[in-house]
């Protein structure tokens, strides 16, 4: 378990202001061991104190990931609570558990970057909040102030064992496969091999909150936040190719000679929200 505190003093504390959305961004480096393809469940909890001063945690979001890059977790509930109760900000918790196991692991052991990482990889929160009385909407990006590790032995009552949130919608941005036979295209007379092509394409929505599975860019995160407030002025982020692959083709020239040629950037291998 890792606890994180964020600087919320720049956020407004008047009761008229409300949080429209908040996203915690964590960067996960590529790891080579022990199993780089293993899937992990990353959960974020709002740390709260009960009337007796005992600490408890409330699950606010969770994702599953096996890839490196930026992770996005919805922490709107945390920001709203801190704005309404600024003196009760005791941070949040991040836990990481292998999907195939039940024992938590340290986030840094699976590549999640903390304060010891490069500046551009450190955790941060992007917040979008509005004040109807002032008729305005503002952004705020807050950097992490302090992060302290906590072992699972500090949690003997298992207070963070809460149900996992629901799965991702099938309509979210992703890669869809479509195989095209060259005979159906009428190209069999000049293409010798391969017999067809998997013309995978990107399809789906980029809705808030963007998850790690959608491979969102930083711009897509901001654009999605703005869209939640001004849908008529700012469109949603677009689902588009992020990574391409090559394809080798054997074909006949006009003189019936055979040519082997490799076409770069012809196959879509990964999609994301841009």
- What is the CATH-assigned architecture of the largest domain? Sandwich
Total helical segments: 2
Low-confidence stretches: 139-169
What is the overall shape? elongated
In angstroms, what is the radius of gyration? Answer: 23 Å
How many domains? 2
> What is the ordering of alpha helices and beta strands?
EEEEEHEEEEEEEEHEE
- Order of strands across the biggest sheet? 4-3-6-1-8-7-2-5
N-to-C terminal Cα separation, in Å? 32 Å
Give the total of beta strands. Answer: 15
Structural class: mainly beta
**At the first level of CATH, what is the class of the largest domain?**
Mainly Beta
Going by CATH, the homologous superfamily of the largest domain would be: Haemocyanin C-terminal domain
Overall mean pLDDT score? Answer: 77
Proportion of strand residues? 35-45%
From the 3D structure, determine the CATH topology of the largest domain.
Hemocyanin, Chain: A, domain 2
How helical, in percent, are the residues?
under 10%
Outline the biggest β-sheet.
8 strands, antiparallel
Tell me what you see in this structure.
With about 270 residues, this protein is mainly beta. The protein has 2 domains: about 1-130, Hemocyanin, Chain: A, domain 2 (Sandwich); about 135-145 and about 170-274, Cystine Knot Cytokines, subunit B. It has 2 helices and 15 strands. It has helices at about 75-85, 220-230, and strands spanning about 1-5, 20-30, 40-50, 55-65, 70-75, 90-100, 125-130, 135-150, 175, 180, 190-195, 195-200, 200-205, 240-250, 260-274. The chain has an 8-stranded antiparallel sheet. The chain has a 3-stranded antiparallel sheet with strand order 11-14-15, with no helix packed on it. Strand 14 and strand 15 (about 260-274) form a beta hairpin. The longest helix has 12 residues, at about 220-230. The protein is elongated. The two termini are about 30 Å apart. Mean pLDDT is about 75; it is low at about 140-170. Belongs to the TGF-beta family. It is found in: Secreted. GO terms for molecular function: cytokine activity; growth factor activity. Pfam families: TGF_beta, TGFb_propeptide. Keywords: Disulfide bond, Glycoprotein, Growth factor, Secreted, Signal.
